[in-house]
Amino acid sequence: MEGVDYLRDERSKAQFDVETMKVAWAGSPEAFLVCDRMAKLVANDPVFEKFSKPMLGRKELFKNTLRKTAHAWKLVNDLHLTEEEAKWLRHYIDEPSYTDLQWEMFVPALEGQGTEEQKKKWVPLAKTMQIIGTYAQTELGHGSNVQGLETTATFDRQSDEFVIHSPTLTSSKWWPGGLAKVTTHAIVYARLIIDGHFYGVHGFIVQLRSLEDHSPLPGITLGDIGMKFGHGTYNTMDNGVARFDRVRIPRDQMLMRVSQVTKEGKYMKSNVPRQLGYATMVSVRQTIVSDASKALSRAVCIATRYSAIRRQFGSRDGGPETQVLDYKTQQSRLFPLVASAFAFRFASDWLKLLYTDVKQRLEVNDFSTLPEVHACTAGFKSLTTAATAEGIEECRKLCGGHGYLISSGLPELFAFYVPACTYEGENVVMLLQVARFLVKTVSDLGNKQPVGTAAYLGRASLLVQKNCVVQTAEDWLNPIAILEAFEARAARMAVGCCQRLAEFKSPEEGFAELSSDLAEASLAHCQVIVVSTFIRRLQQDIPGRGVKQALEVLCNVYALFLLHKHQGDFLATGYLTPKQASLANDQLRTLYSKVRPNAIALVDSFNHTDHYLSSVLGRYDGNVYPKLYEAALKDPLNDSDIADGIHQYVQPILKQKLHSSKL
Ligand SMILES: CCCCCCCC/C=C\C/C=C/C(=O)SCCNC(=O)CCNC(=O)[C@H](O)C(C)(C)COP(=O)(O)OP(=O)(O)OC[C@H]1O[C@@H](n2cnc3c(N)ncnc32)[C@H](O)[C@@H]1OP(=O)(O)O
Ligand SMILES: Cc1cc2nc3c(=O)[nH]c(=O)nc-3n(C[C@H](O)[C@H](O)[C@H](O)COP(=O)(O)OP(=O)(O)OC[C@H]3O[C@@H](n4cnc5c(N)ncnc54)[C@H](O)[C@@H]3O)c2cc1C
């Protein structure tokens, strides 16, 4: 049999209806149709070809992306695509470009932090791409600590302008996407100074380049920050540096939803919290969670298909060898990642609802749920990006040696994905934000009953006393038992941290000293929410033959895999006995056997095109070896039998006459 037959055979074993699972993955029939149409539009358009990317130099990579982005914008207009469709189009084009910043950060920053008047002026210009903007917050010297930014915006009462200035080398804006060569405008974050007084960091709309000839405006120095990790992925993007030498902008270009500066130079605070200035980051963190499920689904799709084709050992009497997918070790590394992709998908659907809700509330100045939404977006961003980055690397290893080839699609996916652990809030820094929320919630238990995602902490006094009642491996299939185990572990970790915090001289000192434990407690809290979201999703109506059952298996795999991975926490906090932890692992092995016949169908449900996967190992048709061979032959080194440099550098060595002492 060939790879093609192996996958056909695997598909015939599926115990659920793949077409309905595709809809469950996409979120709704409508969402599925949009994704499917956009994926095919990109896959069938030769402009979006990407197999030649690994061979391009930096300048060509960048220009190639400009060309694709211009073509995409033409399609958006010619085909009258909606914003949602255009977002999927960008996603499937699969190349970081300045438009990510335009649509994911510049427009949301204008919409979220601008006044009605500002939005009316700037948003239509941005949405029609008459101006192209970026989000210029990070500096050479500070990224995580936003309040530590050094760029200044000094109000000049006489001219009714702000003077934007980079006073030090470390105040140079550093990293913003598109800044180096493309963007005409930026939201520049700077310390506001009026009459020598500092009023904190605010966002300012600054024009960077002439709209006539694209040259940088006077007083502005712009450049690229250099090549980044990997080859053809983030190097398509011109992440940039900007320095400002007393650049003047009109007063009405400070984003003034949160606070205003009057003509007279009076600083006025609205009744909105200053954290609203961070709202764009909350919006993007939410998008990043959804992106994690996509990136992980892509990696597991490649690794699962290839694992069904790859055979090693186990041949008897000249018969076929064992598919590596049948090895329990392969399953125990791969299936939890398949389950995680689904878990993150449902978590991101839920987070989107939570975010939509807070957005509506913020519009009518209801800020009550902002702390919880901030904690959820920050925590989920950290949890999902860390697990996805690790998961992609695991998938590379699951594909053995071939996983290291660029043609497997995995090295470039990894290089593209890993910065997600850093940008939009470094992951540990984000967990510490969750920790602040947890400590506040636990410390306030006597006065205030927690709600929403923290509601379980209202039962903390009970959860720290109760013990797990599981007696058999089957008991671990009960969602109530699973959820209580996660809640008890998280509550015990959070309460334990709070008790130890009280032993320090000051809360700040305690927080700093216990920050590792607090980050672990935060992760445990986020896992409660992801697991409970998966469980709740299964309580909804899920149509289609066997779809719900297949998802139930994955939900249990996800939860019990986490329980097994973090069994140290579950045991140390005393909720579980070693016997119960071992029963969970027994159940996990059984569950892997239930995933096995559905493995290929599950990854088919992601509906990824071969173009999107850009992987010879993950091809839908399974024709791996001939195509791997074909891809290798296309390498420029194979253009001739005698490569450049052989005559010059190798032959002289071969032909040298050695002295007998060196023989
Ligand atoms: C097609 C798909 C495309 C997908 C996505 C495209 C992305 C493109 C790729 C890359 C682009 C990347 C862009 C960037 O990276 S932009 C830069 C991002 N930078 C950061 O994320 C900086 C992280 N730092 C911070 O957010 C803050 O400095 C901080 C939260 C770490 C600390 O804030 P600070 O004000 O200094 O102090 P406190 O810790 O004291 O906080 C005060 C108070 O405010 C609460 N809070 C903090 N942040 C928020 C928030 N966002 N919303 C609501 N509330 C917030 C915090 O919890 C404290 O509350 P308290 O405990 O009650 O006092
Ligand atoms: C590909 C990419 C694209 C980007 N795009 C943009 C963009 O468009 N616009 C923009 O403004 N920025 C952008 N950034 C910058 C990005 O937002 C920052 O790099 C990020 O916020 C992390 O900040 P940092 O680099 O200062 O890291 P640091 O904060 O210096 O982190 C270094 C280490 O210190 C630790 N650390 C920091 N603070 C604490 C603390 N309080 N407690 C414990 N540990 C701590 C971190 O955990 C980390 O291990 C981008 C970055 C990348 C990689």
Automatic annotation (TrEMBL):
Cofactor(s) in the UniProt record: FAD
UniProtKB keywords: FAD, Fatty acid metabolism, Flavoprotein, Lipid metabolism, Oxidoreductase, Peroxisome
Residues annotated as domain Acyl-CoA oxidase C-terminal: 480-655
Pfam families registered for this protein in UniProt: ACOX, ACOX_C_alpha1, Acyl-CoA_ox_N
Compartments where located: Peroxisome
Keyword Membrane listed: no
Signal peptide: none
GO biological process terms held by the UniProt record: fatty acid beta-oxidation using acyl-CoA oxidase; lipid homeostasis; long-chain fatty acid metabolic process
Molecular function as annotated in GO: acyl-CoA oxidase activity; FAD binding; fatty acid binding
GO cellular component: peroxisome
Domain of life: Eukaryota
Binding site for FAD: 138, 177
Oxidoreductase is among the record's keywords: yes
Ranges of residues in domain Acyl-CoA oxidase C-alpha1: 278-439
Primary site of residence: other
Ranges where the Acyl-coenzyme A oxidase N-terminal domain occurs: 17-132
Family according to the record: Belongs to the acyl-CoA oxidase family.
Protein name in the entry: Acyl-coenzyme A oxidase
Species whose genome carries this gene: Ambrosia artemisiifolia
